[in-house]
């Protein structure tokens, strides 16, 4: 994701240096804990959510309901978003909070705690942009070394016969939409920062291949997964696709695409094709938006089915992709109004504010996947059976990002 850096402000920079050279989050947590009894309601939604996150998880690794430090995509998503809040609103405490996770998980030699490259789990590449943020802020080589490890995984990630990344080594021949946020924005940012232009052709090919294999010609929606081998019970024997359209899977795909466009060269020969994919995917998504709330359903195209529910994480992802796409000039201005409608729908449908000002995002699907043990068959009944919870990190991260885009749209839109 593009770092929308604030304009130079001496007090902010001095505070940032003090916090980062301290090497701990002591000052940051002390400062924020002074506000733990209440979250100010006069601040932008992005800050209110970030402060609420820190109230619920005083140590950054505690996000995602964990009882021990883990290396995973949810922490990367949430903490990268928290860093963006701090940069845009010139508050170095948020960067220091995120850095505490980096210092917990990355050893002095750059090795990554709780990470095994031989699993080739593309989810574990997703914290890569956070590593690049921390490297840019601190200059500590351990963060670059860790980022290089993640790039090495992508260099050797198993692939389908046409070059699409397997989602994990234990999910052979399978492409999942989830993986397009997990791997590609990091790979694109790394390629731009460290001069690996050959990566951009491969990145574009990934998105184009997925649409070709997973797009439903009737609705334009994208199926959750595709199995080249057709060996999975969930895969259609003719098309290889999974049976349903899961909202968050499509959300991962469009978030990954809108973030990749930040780094893809302006003259790349397939840039226009990627923008067209983003546009037509969002057209299909808007066609199944709930007419009353302007948000989206768990199984996105079946609102009438018993047990289906309006789901917050996918809704936040779609809004982020639309408003960022409009702000950056990737999408037509018409998306600004539809994004605003759906953002208001999120605030009205999913946001709960406690008397002390703490902000909660409700009704998030905790997890969903395909295959595995116990086996997930991709049926409607499966998707609605997964637990629903408040403050799922896969929703609060995109909520902060969408909020930041609305907070900056009037002063920095490229249109």
How would you characterize the overall build of this protein?
- The longest helix is centred in the C-terminal third of the chain and has 20 residues, at 393-412.
- Strand 5 and strand 6 form a beta hairpin.
- The protein has 16 helices and 8 strands.
- It is mainly alpha-helical and 415 residues long.
- Helix 9 (184-193) runs parallel beside helix 11 and helix 11 packs parallel to helix 13.
- It has a single domain (10-412), classed as Glycosyltransferase (Alpha/alpha barrel), CATH 1.50.10.10.
- The strands form 4 sheets. A two-stranded antiparallel sheet has the order 1-2. It has a two-stranded antiparallel sheet with strand order 3-4.
- The chain starts with 9 loop residues before the first helix and ends with a helix.
- Residues 1-28 form the signal peptide.
- It is an enzyme of class 3 (hydrolase).
Strand order of the largest sheet: 1-2
Number of strands: 8
CATH topology: Glycosyltransferase
> Average pLDDT across residues?
92
The main pleated sheet reads as: 2 strands, antiparallel
**Any guess at the CATH architecture?**
Alpha/alpha barrel
Strand content: under 5%
Give me the strand/helix succession.
HHHHHHHEHHHEHHEEHHEEEHEH
Q: Any idea what the shape is?
A: globular
User: What's the CATH C level?
Assistant: Mainly Alpha
Number of helices: 16
Give the low-pLDDT segments.
Answer: 1-15, 21-30
Distance between the termini: 19 Å
User: In percent, how helical is the residue content?
Assistant: 40-55%
Helix/sheet category:
mainly alpha
Any idea how many domains? 1
Radius of gyration, in Å, reads 20 Å
Keywords: Glycosidase, Hydrolase, Signal
InterPro entries: 6-hairpin_glycosidase_sf, 6hp_glycosidase-like_sf, Glyco_hydro_88, PolySaccharide_Degr_Enz
EC number: 3.2.1.172
Protein name: Unsaturated rhamnogalacturonyl hydrolase
């Amino acid at each position: 994701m593009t770092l929308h850096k604030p304009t130079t402000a001496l007090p902010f920079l001095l505070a940032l240096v003090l916090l980062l050279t301290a090497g701990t989050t002591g000052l940051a947590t002390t400062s924020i804990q002074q506000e733990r009894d209440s979250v100010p309601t006069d601040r932008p939604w992005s800050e209110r959510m970030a402060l609420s996150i820190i109230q619920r998880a005083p140590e950054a690794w505690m996000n995602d309901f964990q009882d021990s430090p883990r290396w995973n995509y949810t922490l990367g998503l949430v903490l990268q978003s928290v860093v963006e809040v701090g940069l845009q609103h010139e508050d170095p405490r948020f960067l220091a909070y995120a850095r505490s996770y980096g210092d917990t998980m990355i050893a002095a030699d750059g090795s990554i705690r709780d990470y095994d490259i031989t699993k080739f789990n593309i989810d574990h590449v997703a914290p890569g942009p956070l590593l690049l943020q921390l490297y840019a802020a601190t200059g500590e080589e351990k963060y670059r070394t860790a980022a290089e490890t993640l790039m090495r995984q992508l260099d050797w990630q198993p692939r389908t016969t046409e070059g699409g990344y397997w989602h994990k080594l234990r999910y052979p021949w399978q492409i999942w939409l989830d993986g397009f946020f997990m791997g590609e924005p990091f790979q694109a940012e790394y390629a731009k920062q460290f001069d690996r232009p050959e990566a951009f052709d491969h990145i574009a090919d990934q998105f184009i291949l997925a649409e070709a294999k997973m797009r439903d010609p009737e609705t334009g929606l994208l199926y959750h997964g595709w199995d080249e081998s057709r060996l999975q019970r969930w895969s259609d024997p003719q098309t290889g696709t999974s049976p349903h359209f899961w909202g968050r899977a499509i959300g991962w795909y469009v978030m990954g695409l809108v973030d990749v466009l930040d780094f893809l060269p302006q003259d790349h020969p397939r840039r226009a094709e990627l923008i067209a994919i983003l546009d037509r995917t969002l057209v299909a998504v808007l066609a199944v938006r709930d007419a009353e709330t302007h948000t989206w359903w768990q199984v996105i195209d079946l609102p009438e089915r018993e047990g289906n529910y309006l789901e917050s994480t996918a809704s936040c992802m779609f809004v982020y992709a639309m408003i960022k796409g409009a702000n950056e000039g990737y999408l037509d201005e018409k998306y600004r109004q539809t994004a605003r409608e759906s953002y208001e729908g999120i605030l009205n449908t999913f946001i709960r504010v406690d008397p002390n000002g703490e902000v909660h995002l409700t009704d998030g699907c905790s997890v969903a996947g395909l295959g595995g043990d116990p086996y997930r068959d991709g049926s409607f009944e499966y998707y609605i059976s997964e637990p629903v919870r408040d403050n799922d990190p896969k929703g609060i991260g995109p909520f902060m990002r969408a909020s930041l885009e609305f907070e900056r749209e009037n002063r920095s839109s490229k249109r």
